[in-house]
Amino acid sequence: MAEITDVAMPEASPKPVVAELHFGDLAAALREGWRDFTKAPQFGLFFALIYAFGGFAMVKLSLGQVATVLILSLGFPLVAPFAAVGLYDVSRRLAVGERLTWRCVLGCVWRERARQIPWIGAIIVIYFLFYTFFAHMLFAIFLGPSALMNISSSYEAFFTPQGVQLIVAEVIFGAVVALLLYGLTVVSIPFALDREVDFITAMLTSLEVVRENKLVMLVWAVVLAVLLLAAMVPFFAGLLIALPVLGHATWHLYEKALIHPAE
């Protein structure tokens, strides 16, 4: 029989040190994100179109079809992080002066399927399902199951005292859920791309960055929300610019947030 040999596994990267961030770092990250986008706009537009088309398809294809809603809702969070990987890889290559080609960038995205980022996508799916279940439960508690089944003709229910309470509860719950997901993912995806680290460590490190830089990272969350909301106003066309710029900027913020020891 042929001798069986062990396959060498990549050695885990050393634990990074969380840096102290300042508001100037946010401005610098945005400037660097814009610079990367203007240097290689074809990649930014390509990955932004993936996001935009995915969201548009979810809206158009799922109208009135529960099964389609479920399939698309489960699939999109798994695919979306890979578009972010493409933007991060472009920024990483620009920083070291590597020549950008479609083969290299898309090859990086393809290789990530066998590393840790799919696990982060899976956590996002589980998180999304929890949020959806709890949001529907709040709706049923405040307005009753009948309103949940007939929401298209029950808008007046939102103007009742119970409806107002529901809106307040949903806003508070949504804000808490969104902030926690933001904390788990703002640094974890670029970290998992850049280093040999498991997804749990990457997500815990991301939370540590937010915890150690609460005000700065909260402002960054507001900047992301405001810019993305503003980009949606002109028929979502602004997302073609905002998404890649913010994606590149997130990579540069990650570089500022974590100090890696020499390996």
Structure description:
The protein has eleven helices and two strands; from the N terminus they run βαααααααααααβ. Helix 1 crosses helix 2, helix 3 crosses helix 11 and helix 10 packs antiparallel against helix 11.
Give the SSE order as H and E letters.
EHHHHHHHHHHHE
Structural class: mainly alpha
| Average pLDDT rating | 81
How many H/I helices?
11
Q: Choose one word for the global shape.
A: globular
Low-confidence spans: pLDDT under 50, at least 5 residues? 1-8
Helix content: over 70%
Spatial order of strands in the largest sheet: 1-2
Largest sheet: 2 strands, antiparallel
How many whole angstroms does the radius of gyration measure? 21 Å
Distance between the termini: 38 Å
Strand and helix layout:
Layout: E1 17-18, H1 23-39, H2 41-61, H3 66-95, H4 102-111, H5 117-143, H6 145-149, H7 161-185, H8 188-194, H9 199-212, H10 214-232, H11 239-257, E2 258-259
Antiparallel strand pairs: 1-2
